[in-house]
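Reviewers of the previous submission asked for a worked example of the structure-prediction workflow described in the proposal, so we include one complete record here. The input consisted solely of the amino acid sequence. No template or homolog information was supplied to the procedure at any stage.
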Amino acid sequence: MIYLTTPLSKKCLSNLRAGEQVFFSGTMYTARDQAHARLVTALKKSKKLPLDLKGRVIYYCGPTKTPKGGVIGSCGPTTSSRMDSFTPVLLKAGLAAMIGKGRRSQEVAQAIRKYGAVYFVTYAGCGALLSTCVKKARAVAFKDLGPEAIVALEVENFPLIVGIDSRGERI
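From that input alone, the workflow returned the following structure tokens.
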């Protein structure tokens, strides 16, 4: 088992191979379709982003409502291919890694290789279990999007599998 913590360096990512299992600890940011669209629009208009993407990890997730006394509600992955049209632009801006479920397009695999990034997959249907790895959660951008707002998650031993490594090799 491989243990990773933020910040993720290009060297660290270059050592990962498709299919390897990882426990991730540190900060990741949730973002889905609407948040991605806003980030890409801002980049294309040369506007300042609400967070620096360099070396960051985006988790394709829209957490459910936080139960009373909880840190976060269920937080399972969403289908990654829905973000494929946005991904090359975000990788160019410095995004280091993405977490989701499902296949990615050839264009995304090529962009991952070009920018030395990594695509991780995590367990679908296990949102309640994955939420136990979240120690802190706070909305950081686009709060008007509700569950699609960008939320900073502090996680410990969040289980991942390298889906596409920095050479573009797939699981």
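The first helix runs from residue 10 to 14. We consider this example representative of the routine output the project will generate in years two and three.
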